[in-house]
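Lay summary

Proteins are chains of building blocks that fold into shapes. Our project writes down both the chain and a compact code for its shape. Here are two examples, one after the other.
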Amino acid sequence: MLRTLLGAAAGLALTASVGVAQEKMRISLQLPLKSHLGQNLVLFEQEVESRTGGAIDVEIYDSATLYKDKEVPAAVGSGAIEAGVASLTRYVGDAPVVDVFYMPFLFNSEDKVRAAVTEGSVVRQTIEAEIEKTGGQVLYWQAYGGAIMLSNGGPIRTPSDMEGKKVRVFGKTLGDFVKAAGGAPTLISGSEQYLAYQRGTVDVGMTGVSGVKSRKLWEVMDTITVTNHADIEFVVVVNNDWWNGLSEEIRGHIAEAAAVAQGSVRDKMASIEAEAYAAAKENGMTVVELTDDELEQWKAVSQPVYDAYLAAAGEAGQKVLTAAGN
């Protein structure tokens, strides 16, 4: 009996010394692991496991194998999973203020985007406070770049080109933008857009150019129109109860890992988009830049989008719009 007890104690000591995982942190991701968000999560995983000595075992479930993008907020908030990556706009039902990043042409420079997403900024603090009410809190932000349009047979240069067309969107405010331009928005998850384009469910696509590369959308669409009409942001969210149940030391290590991953993806975004545009061209896509006059035509139809946003987001919406410089 004594030898058995001593052996068990030695085993426990060995487990502690080699840092065998004691707590799982499962993360749901709708994109493929090879996407830049997937690779960023791999970096986060490595940082967490290194900094915690293996006390946290990060498991990434990519390509919507556990939850689709639209299901992540509820899954994380309920504790069904410890963490998930969701497009910021997936929180618009509970927190309309999040869609400030989809106000047409508001975040039209890298400086404006960085100012808004900086920790401690009015925009970020306001949004994160609202998300926390859903049972999950933002661990870090993942940059995804500017929104573009996809089509077949020619570009979508002006609102008249969109008139009467069915358009894939991934958020309410983007739908309002499409309606203002005369199109018919259809809400389609990122993991489902390839089939939607292939089957002709929609005529026009909307995504970030990095998604064109990771999902090989050149197989089903032949033209990119570079509108950059919105800034696409994803957030890595953790369940409040799970997070608060960790020790302060472990939370600190995870937060440090999150800061490394957040800075990495933000700093690489320009090169990621450049590489994606190059890959699209190499695979036969036509990339069309808009003239100043064409951009002005899009801006001219956008005011109803701002009006609808303020009606939904109220004081919080006005607060972040003002902070963003509008």
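And here is the second example, written the same way.
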Amino acid sequence: MVTHPTEFLDYRDQRVQDFVAKAIGDATTRKDRAVRLFYAVRDGLHYEVSGQDLSREGLRASAIAARGQGFCAHKSILYAAAVRAVGIPSRIVVSEVRNHLASPALKALVGGDTFVHWLTSIQLGGRWLYVTPVFNKVLCRLYRMPPLEFDGESDARLHPFTGGEQMEFLTEHGHFDDVDYDRLIGLMRSRHPGMFTDGPNGAVVPDAGALAAQATES
């Protein structure tokens, strides 16, 4: 069910509960809670690709909340778990996109400008909305792009167009009630083999440098 805890959306873990409580504060409506959780994930978790854990353990919401950083997969998983914790149905959405704003170092790591991109869908007001709590405000400023906002009523899927090229959605691989680990990590391995190093603790993204430092290269 899309509100139940799962292996990866393990919102009953105290680390997720603490994250949710701090984020929602005195918000009482589902809409307000969804919005506050969006910004808590978007700006409260540092966006980084290098060194991120893609093991089963590393992709659990509880581990992500404890680590406090990650890229689209990690941030979307934590958001999906957090909104379920307050009774809002959610799913993981996995797509492929073309990202024209990526730095040369990131393109070298993933093997081009086409990325497997994770986001979330949530049910509010009787509708399913696409929500992308991924690129934080500071990173967007460094890459000279407006941050993606969420009002609890409309999709938050594409960054506002400001001229030039923007992220282009190419293929959607599905909506998932939980992370289908073998299928989705298998997809990422096939598209981005350079992102995986297999150590004693599972799959870890190699160190390709901090994205903030690469902003001037993009």
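What can we say about the second shape? The mean pLDDT is 89.
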